Structures are given as C-alpha cells and as structure tokens.
Fold each of these.
Amino acid sequence: MKFDRNLAIHIADKFYDAMYDFPSTVEILVQDKALSYVLDGISHEIYLNFDQDAYTFLRRPNAAKIDIEFRKEEELYFHCRVIGTDCDFYYPVGPYITALLKPVILDGILPIVKVRSVHLYYNLVVLSIKIQIFDELTSEEDDISVV
C-alpha cells in the first residue's frame, strides 16, 4: 500500500489506543511510538522448534512468505510457508501485536510481513520479521507532526 498521510495518522491513533488499553505493556505510551510503528514497522521474532518445517525455513529464507490471518475464535495468526515446498503452518501472533493490529485489519487494512532474517539459535530457528502498513513511503512521512 502506498503511503497516505491521513491514513497513517488514523492507524497511529488506533495503535495508541491499543497500547494504552493493553494492561501488561511496558511500552512508553506516547503517540510518537505509535506513529513510529506505523511508519517504521513493528519488529518481531517467531521462534520455531527445530523440526522439518523450521529446517525448510532455514534452508530457503528467500522463499519464506508470512501473512497475517484470522483463525479460530477470531484470533490472529501468522500463516508461514515456504514457496515451492509443502511447508505451511500457522503460528499465533500474540496478544500485544494482536491488540495493535486487529482494529486496523478490521478496518480493511492488511499489514505486510517481511522476513528480515532466518537463523539458528541453539535448538530454535528464529524468523526475524517486520510488520509494515505501508510498503512505499514518500518524503511526506517526515512532515507528519503529532498533536
């Protein structure tokens, strides 16, 4: 999705509300943080036990695709797959990121998940991802002021 200033502020407001309402968050509750999530994305890591699926991700990180979908009981899950293989499974998004993203997705805005890296850490395969709203940012993003 291309960057839109008004939409970015609208989403930042939703993120701010979610951050404020989430009971166990230790994030600094300021609108600047919510806006940075919208503009810079949300960094997150998925930890997979070292099995065949995790090994497939480790061997073919460039073919890894991750989407966010609603699953049972309207909970958000990452749909993880490696293109060209039968590696295909769901991983829970987690309560904090669900709180941030659910209102935005219900508005019809689907975030983009980009795989940044895949590496082995002891007996876990760690997928480092970034969840972004906009895939194209313009110089206009620098002009956003938080009121």
Amino acid sequence: MPQHLPDLLQSRVEGDLLFDRFSRGRYATDASLYQMMPLGILCPKSEDDVAAAIDIAREQQVPILARGGGTSQCGQTVNEALVLDNTQYFNDILELDVENQRCVVRPGIVLDELNRALKPHGLWFPVDVSTASRATIGGMTGNNSCGGKSLRYGMMRDNVLSIDGFMADGSHHHFGLNGPAPSPAFAALKDDMLRLGHREAEEIGARFPKVMRRVGGYNIDALTPNQSPNNLAQLLVGSEGTLVYSTAIELKLWPIISQKVLGVCHFATFHQAMDAAQHLVSLRPQGVELVDATMIALARDIPMFRATIEEVVTGTPEALLLVEFAEEDATRHPAKLKALEEMMGDLGFSWTGKGRNWGGVTKVTDAAMQGRIADLRSSGLNIMMSMKDDGKPVSFVEDCAVELPDLAAYTAGLTEIFDKHGTKGTWYAHASVGCLHVRPVLNLKLDKDVKTMRAIAEECFDLVAKYKGSHSGEHGDGLVRSEFHEKMFGARMVANFAEVKKRFDPDGLFNPGKIVNAPKMDDRRLFRYGPDYAAPEIKTELDWSDWTGSGGGFQGAIEMCNNNGACRKLKGGVMCPSYRVTRKEQDLTRGRANTLRLAITGQLGPDALTSDEMAETMKLCVSCKGCKRECPTGVDMARMKIEVMSARARKHGVSLHDRLVGYLPRYAPWASRLSFLANLRNSVPGLATLTERLTGFTRTRDLPTWSNRPFRNDEVARHDQPKAVIFADCFNRYFEPENLRAAVVVLDAAQVTVAVAAQPEGERSLCCGRTFLSVGLIDEAKAEARRLVDALLPFAQQGLPIIGLEPSCLLTLRDEIPALLPGADTALLAKQARMLEEYIADQEGNPDFVLPLSSPAPKVLLHGHCHQKAMGVMSSIEKTLARLPDTEVEIVETSCCGMAGSFGYGVDTHEVSRRMAEADLAPAVRGADGNTLIVADGTSCRHQVADITGRKPIHVARLLEMALKKGEVSAR
C-alpha cells in the first residue's frame, strides 16, 4: 500500500476513512471461509467520493472493492484492496415511480429498508434473499441474487432495468435500454460486447447450463442476437464488482400480494422429498423450500426457533418441504392447499402410513406463524453453523443447481461423495428450482480436511457436469468457484470471460481475482484459518466449556460468528442497538467478534485484547444480550465483553467512574442514609458540571435519586413455610422501594406468603454482582454471587420460586452467575429464578391463585427490558397483563432503550444512548395519549423514558397494585 494513500484520500473525500489495523481486520472477512486484509476502508458519502477514490486508486495502482453487507458466501467481498463500504451513507432511494412500478436506488440500500419504503405504495422488490435484513441492492446485483420466490419473480438479472456506474478509467456511464445518448467511448464498448455475443452465440448455447439458476461467470448470453434488445445491465449483474462500480441501480417493482398460505410437507426420507419436488412445483407455488432433519434438530436448540418447530413439525421427519402459495385472488388458497394434500396422497404419503409411506401436510394459514417459519427458513444458513464443535458446515459446493427431474439422483450422488470422504452434509433451501444449499461438515483448521474439501469439490462439480447443471446456482463465484469455470464452461468460454474483463478493466483495478484470473480455492494463505492460525492459552473468568479452543472454550465461542451478519438488521428484535445508531462495522456483534478473534490469535499485535482500540470496539456494546437470543449461531457478546473488561481491569486497573458504578452495592446503604447529600448533585446548580470530569457522568442528565426510605427486609412478616422468596435487588431497594412494596402487596392479595432473601445478620444487603461485572471486577462479582447463592440456595432446595423485579439482576441468576460459579447449585437457582410476571403467568390454571384485578387504565404501553427479550420472558408478561380486564396492552417494538445501566450517563456515551431511544421507543411514548400508562420493568428503561420524554413509567408490580386496589374497591 502506498503510504501516502490515506493522505491523498483525506484531501479529496468527505466520507469516513479507516486505515488502522483493527478497522482493516473487521473488513478482512465476509461470510465465506476466506480472509484477506484490505489496505483501508472508505465509507463514501457521494458519487464525488467514489470518483475521487477510483481516480486515486488508478494513479496509485491500488485495487478497489465495492462492499455492501459483507454477507457473500464465496469470498466476493474480501480482497487486498481499498474497500468502499456503501452501507453507511451511500444508501438512499433516488427515484420512485409508483405508476410504472420502478425505482432507482444507491447500491448501499438494504433490501428490507427498501421494501419498508415501498410497502405504503403497495409495491415491493421480490428477490427475497434470506439475508434481506442486511443484503444491499448493490451486493445482490453483483451476485445476481435469487431468493426463495425466483420461481415466480425471477432473479436479479430479471429485475434490474439499468445501472449507472464508473468504469475503471473514471468515466461514468448509463447501462440500460433507455437513457442519455451514449458517448463515443461507451458506444464502442457496446459494439465490442455485441460482436463478442454474436461471435460466441453458438458456443454459449452449447456450454451454458439450461437451468434457471446459473450465476457463474459473466452473463455474456445477454449479448447474443436472440436476446435482442441487448441490455448491458444484464452483463453487469452477477459480475461481482469486477467490471463497473455501480452508483445507481434501476429496479423493476411488483405489487404486494398480502395474503398467502403455506403447506409444510413431511417426508420420512430425504430422497423422497427431493423426488417429490418436481411434482409439487406443478401446482404453481411461488416457492418450495427444504428443511432437513439436521436443521430441525439444531433449530430446536435455539430459543427463538424452538416454539415454531414444536408447533409446525409432526413426528420425526427426515425432511420438510415448505410449499408457499400466494394468489392474487386469496379465495383460491384453500383449493391450493387441498390440491397439495391430494398430490401428497397420490405420491403415496399419509399420516397413517408406515415407513416410507408416512408423511403429510401441515396447513399454515396464520400470517404470524408464516412469518416465524419464514424467519426460520431465512436463518437456515446460520442455524446450520450453530454447531459448537470445530467441525462446521463449509460453503464451497453449496448452491449447485440441476434440473428438477435429476434432483433426487444428484443429491443421492452427492451424499455418496460425502460418505466416501467420511463426512456428512447439511441441506436446505430452494427445492423448487433444483438449487440446494448443501455444506459438508469439515474442520478447516486441519490440513487433511482442506484436502478433503478439494477432493469433494472436484467430484461434486464432475457430478454437476454429468447432469448438465450449474456449479454456481445462487451465491456466485468469488474465490471458491471461479477456479472451476474451465471445468464447467470450457477453455474457450473462460477466454471469453477474460476478454470481457480486459475490455472493461484492462488494469485489473476492480476486485481482482474474482471470476477471472482466480487463485486456487484451497490456497490456505487466503483462509480465515490459515496455516499458522492459533490462539495461545489465555486466562478467562467465565465458563466457556460448551465450546472448544483456548481460554477454556472462549476461542470457540468467538469463532461461532460466521460473519453472515444477522446482527446488521435495522428493525425487529433487539440486536444490535449500537449499530442501528452508528451504522459502523465496529459497533456490531460481527465486528466485535472478528476483532476478538483477530486479537486472541495475535493478528492485531501484542496485548490487543487489553488495548485502547479493543476498549473502543467494546465501548458502545450495551450488553443487551440481544445477540444471545437472536444470533442464530449464539454469539453472546455481552458475556464476551465481561472477559474483555476483566482482562483490561487486570492490566490497567479501573477508573473512578467505573469504581462508582461497580461498587454501588457497597456504598448504597450509606448513600441511602445520607440521601440528602447524595442527591445534591442533581439539585445544586453547577455541581453536575463541576463533577463531570472527575466522575465521568454527563452533566446533561440527572442521576437516579436515592430514596430516604429504602426497602427493609423486616417490612415483610416472617413465615415458617413461605410459598415464594423475593430477591430485593439494589436498584429497587435503594432507589424505587415502592416497587418491592407493591410486589409484596400483589402476592399477599393472591395469598402467596413470601420470604425476603436475607443476608447474615450484620452484613449489608444482598446483590447479584452485576455492577461489578459491567466494569470487569470479577473477583468482587464472584464474592457477591456467592453471598446471593448462599442465601437463596436453601429456598431453591425446597422447590420455592425465587421472584425478582429488576430483569438485569434477577436474570443474572440464569445467565452470568452459572457462568461465574458453574455447578449444580447455581444450575438449580437458575431453574427457580422467576420474574414476578413469570411467576404469575405460571399460576394459570391454579385455582388457589386469585387476583381481584380491574382495569388500571384503558391502555398500557409496555416496553420490554432487553434481558427479558433475550431470556424469553416477554410472553409471560403478556400473559400476566392479559389478566387485566378492559385494558389494551401494546408492546413497543423496539431495540434497547439506550440507558443500559450506566451507559446513558457516560460523558462519551450519553448521546448515542439518546439516539437509541429516539429510534423507536421515545416516539412511541410521545405518541401515547395521557390516559395510557407507560410500563417498563427495567430501572434503566424507566429513567431513560422519563428523562427523554417527560413521561413517568411504572413497574409492572405497581401496575398490578393499582389494578388490585381498584378491584378491591369495586368488590366492596
């Protein structure tokens, strides 16, 4: 890299420049098996930035790589190049023509974001790839993406009308059938391409696979005479950024068909499912998707998918085919499902059948369940990658495509190849078009498995050629398949591809090594796990024994990130709240996991784990635990951050700010007794400003107010045989004791006698240790955890539920404490720990549990704490609040509120905290009328809402107390 490249760019571009080692490392991988360190990163803000970058790169002989979501399976989006990340700024809609059903967009716009903007107009872009929440239109165009509904809507090639973009010489052109008059240079280029198409038409007809799913090589078939009028945009689609840098892409849009139905077809054997696909497509569904037994089993182990599997899957099928119908006339849907059942019967399947004749159809007409099944299907790749061993399903023969009549024989042959090499494959995806995503399970850290990968690839592609299929049916060529073009297309066709590349990009500036002039696919120097990849043993504090590798499994837990980028979604669920605000790769679960992996394996220099750069990487992680539940491979960044904070604290100590946060449980009794003094910071003008630099707490916010009447254990009468025990956390005890008192009233009204978990006489109150964990003081956290375990264990051993009010504290018993102090005792406590609403929801059907509730308000707006969402508690809250008569309960669809403990009070984090709240939560609260009660269990959540909106949320315990009191009055 020219050392003055950053300076040259800095003088001419407005976008963000990232040339440090940590940032480059975060862009060195995509969702493939490869890793190539880029020279630097530019996040362009305009076409001028792109033009300047191309000019400078050409002058300095530096390659250019256009990048979107970085979700490519084949290594298209890694290179030793200047990476231009279009996702942060270059991502808007330039034009929307509703009448003519077309739009023009920048390449960095994400598919889901585009469809959200189109939905109010009754339109959508239907190339619905499984990575729609993070895949960009530019990346989809570069890959010629397909999606699950290509049977009806076609591929990107069929839906891209035109492309504007820069060529490597810096000239800018419009590639399409209509547009401005072409320049002489562009006219000459087009003439050259049409001459090539005319010259090679016969060879193209003979060598190009006839299957629909062919995305290998360049689309030079678009240049042949029988494709007239010839649209050069079709040549650029699927070119993987090697020909033109797209700046505007014109898309064909389609009307939304809002209603659909789904038939889940069960099969006793995988082969039967493959054989049935050719018959089921005759019913003209819009998609037929495969889910195999391995994916079913893995999904059952993932909390967010378990309930869906249990509801939809009958018995133990070896394969499912999800057959989706979406007719413009929805009254035809019942007939479609009936026809599907009849066809399954004609094929010999019935629920009462035996052996190979067992099978049938589960009808799914509920839109919500269809959505959950769609989420499961679209997460198929990540679910397959959730195996915790070193062996993982590897993408290299993943999306070969054959004609449907050959599908069963092809998959049988592929299975034989896997068996021969001592491995097995995982299968899912698009049965309707003969394209199945299959991944052999291999450990690419082992040279022998790399050799096995090579052998499987050679034999698989021979098999594909036998059936005249396509070796690249959806995910493109990149590093993994470009080498095999000669095997699949022949030497003459490869020479044609090289001629196209040379004419567009004679110096190989754009994404070199892809499609033409490719390296060997098994060159380990390009692998994520290269020949010298290793992690030295490191000290860790938590239990990582479910995984493998250094740090007692810490390495393996980090390596679970497969870079597919589910954390890049911008709506729905919780993760990743900081990324949703900053749109920076650094502030993303994937970005942090890559940084950790590179750090612990020595690729970011000595002491990288405890460096300032690592601290900056972790700074905006709010430990929401959204990734724990929503990352399909289970990357738990909140737990990993504890290890990073601990290592840094051991090396550098902790700041006064962190001490004030961490040691809060220790000084809380004194601060409460001296609450008048402790609260002066909020009331004395100028005191917050005076102490800001010393304490690290922003002067722009009041801190929580210490109560002068904290909750005391002796407020609850002692019972010899309590039915439950209350864990009074520090936050509710010392800041909002009215919540604990309300919980006691509610439980008493239901005739549930309670005990309060108490510390030994003379000691301070119990604490879960969370504040210490948040600043990396693990020894202190363990001490608090042991005190709590000792106090609660006798109750748990009696089978009593442990009830808490603060999600971040009570749920520590289920998550962090078992990782801090692994063993049978903490496992038992985790089993018994319940939020108040969970305990009440558990009493459904218990005739002895009665709460005389009436409506506390006409409407409740409920915000769920991140940890409640991560630990699957929200359904219990909904069930509990359903007990309130004549009360509408609306749950705010939001990510983290942004306060996240002390995060929202930090000098350098409070602004990001506010922006998190303003994404969804604050507007929803402001939009609620005055008669609506705002409810949130989290202490941080309540303070955030009050601070930003002026509305005062209450805990669910107080809501129930209000409803209880009204119920008592009405009963009188």
